[in-house]
Structures are given as C-alpha cells and as structure tokens.
C-alpha cells in the first residue's frame, strides 16, 4: 500500500464487541477477547506501516461506572493477560506502552501491572501503544485546568496541553470508530480538535488490517487545512 500521507497518531474507538458476541450467541466477554486479538494485530500492523502512535479506548469512565461486574472483570482479565504476557513482545519489537486515565479505582493487581507496563517500556521507541482506561475527555480537561490553576501558570492552550494525560503525545491525526455509532463518546476531546474522523459499521473484532488500510486510504484523500485555505 502506497499512501501520499500517513497519520502519525491514530485514535481508535473499539466499539461493537458486545454485538459481535451476541450475533454468535456468545457472552460479551468473548467479544472483548476477540477485540483484544484484533487490537494486537492492528498495533503490529500500525508499527510496521510507520505510524508512531496508536491510542485505544479500552474503558471509558462511563463503562467503568455502568457495565455489569462480570463484564468488567472480563476486561480486567484481558488487561492482566496483555500486561503480563503480550506486552513483552511489544517491548521486544522496540515499542512502548502508555496508560491514560484515572486507574486508581481499578483492582490493585491490575493497577500495578499497568504501572509496571509503563515503567518497563523502552525509554525511546518509534511506536507507542496508549491504552485509555477509565478515561474521559471532560474529566481530563477538568483535571488539567485544576493542575494549571494550582501552579499559577498563565492559562493558554499550550500550557493546558502540558497538563493533559497526553502531554508527550502529538494530537491524533485520525480517529477511527468501529461499530456503526457516529460520535466521539468523550474520547480525546481536547486533542481531537483537528483530527480527521472515520466511522465504519464493521464491528471491532472484524476490523482487520485491510479495514484499517481503508481508513488510511480515506485519510490520505482528506484535505487538512487546519483552519487555513
Ligand atoms: C466497546 O464495545 C468496547 C469496550 C467497552 C471494550 C474494548 C476492549 C477491548 C477491545 C479489549 C482491549 C484490550 C485489552 C488488553 C483490554 P461494546 O461492548 O460497547 O460493544 P457493543 O456496542 O456491541 O455492545
């Protein structure tokens, strides 16, 4: 695939795992399981293509508050598995993981795995996989405003950006949402100001590398003007 422009940072809203499972008369947790496998493939593919950052919406603050306990436990188990087993392969390939969101209410062992996952990542890497966990865009902005206010710095966009979870990441160039809904659902609200948006009805476990490439092809055709002419 030869593209005229490649996004540096892609955000991914991985929606449709539950419906994918329901269609197969399977528990929702198995849908999330299949979703994790799809995500692992997409991370590998993104890195190979030369995309530098992939940020995946794994659990919103609203998901954590409103999903049944057993479904949340299923997602925690996937995090346990990813951050104790799969993450090592990512490191080996010279990539790092990062976590954004408020992980303080998560089970202690999961929290520790996530912290260790970041700590053990290579210091420099050409690919960063960021997990948004118990993340909400509005909460992130409020948190940043409070931190900025507390240190008495002058309030401006640049200063506020420094207090976002994503301070060290470039803004996303492309945000993809699978599963047919056409909204951002509180994902990277501040950072998405000039992101190109791509929506597809494909349910996340079926969102293959070929489907991802379609989004990249569409991105390459977009005319990004950033407010100019
Ligand atoms: C939304 O689909 C998806 C989630 C709330 C969880 C996404 C998590 C994964 C894909 C696993 C990620 C990897 C790790 C390592 C944890 P939904 O359940 O809302 O689907 P529905 O809209 O069809 O009900």
Q: Overview of this structure, please?
A:
The chain has 229 residues and is α/β, with parallel strands linked by helices. 45% of the residues lie in helices and 16% in strands. It has eight helices and six strands; from the N terminus they run E-H-H-E-H-H-E-H-E-H-H-E-E-H. It has helices at 17-23, 28-49, 61-66, 69-92, 108-119, 137-151, 157-161, 209-221, and strands at 9-13, 53-60, 95-100, 127-135, 174-177, 196-199. It has a six-stranded parallel beta sheet with strand order 3-4-2-1-5-6, with helices on both faces. Helix 5 links the parallel strand 3 (95-100) and strand 4 (127-135). Helix 2 (28-49) packs parallel to helix 4 and helix 4 runs parallel beside helix 5 (108-119). The longest helix has 24 residues, at 69-92. It is globular. It starts with 8 loop residues before the first strand and ends in an 8-residue tail after the last helix.
Head-to-tail CA distance between termini:
29 Å
Strand order of the largest sheet: 3-4-2-1-5-6
DSSP summary: helix tally: 8
Radius of gyration: 17 Å
Q: Determine the structural class based on helices, strands and strand pairing.
A: alpha/beta
The count of DSSP E runs of length 2 or more, i.e. the number of strands, is 6
Q: Provide the helix percentage.
A: 40-55%
* Average of the residue pLDDT scores: 96
Uncertain regions: pLDDT < 50 for 5+ in a row? none
Q: What is the topology?
A:
Elements: E1 9-13, H1 17-23, H2 28-49, E2 53-60, H3 61-66, H4 69-92, E3 95-100, H5 108-119, E4 127-135, H6 137-151, H7 157-161, E5 174-177, E6 196-199, H8 209-221
Parallel strand pairs: 1-2, 1-5, 2-4, 3-4, 5-6
Helix pairs in contact: 1-2, 2-4, 4-5
This protein binds farnesyl diphosphate (FPP).
Farnesyl diphosphate binds at residues 14-19, 28, 32, 35-36, 39, 58, 63, 75, 78-79, 82, 179, 204.
